[in-house]
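Class, study these two lines:
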Amino acid sequence: MFNKSSEKSELSEIAWAQDQLRKNIAPHGSVKERIRNAALTLNWKHSRTRTVWYADDRASIKPKEMRRITEITGVEYGQVELRSVEQLIANADALLEGPHEDFYRPFVAAFRAMAGAFDRSRTRGGE
């Protein structure tokens, strides 16, 4: 079985591509059928698709492959989380500007601190 090295984060490009292949591009059937279907959908060689499917730690995703996955799935690498965090912060700011500003301020400050710590822990590569 594949062991992720310490330098590969949970959100590495290969892990993201593997997740998209398994969840969005070829979600049904046996593994053999799913790999074949993903290869046909992406117009990749079977061996390349299998490498990404199993997230081989020696593999890397090329920019054109990332674009192809994005075209098919509509999911952009890294952008989904960024947008959701930005939306949460915008909602928190809206709460601060409302009539109960003093009530929500400690909650929002704690949330910002938690989000910042979470973001820093993910960008340090597992340090």
About this structure: Residues 13-73 form one domain. Residues 2 and 56 are 7 Å apart (CA to CA).
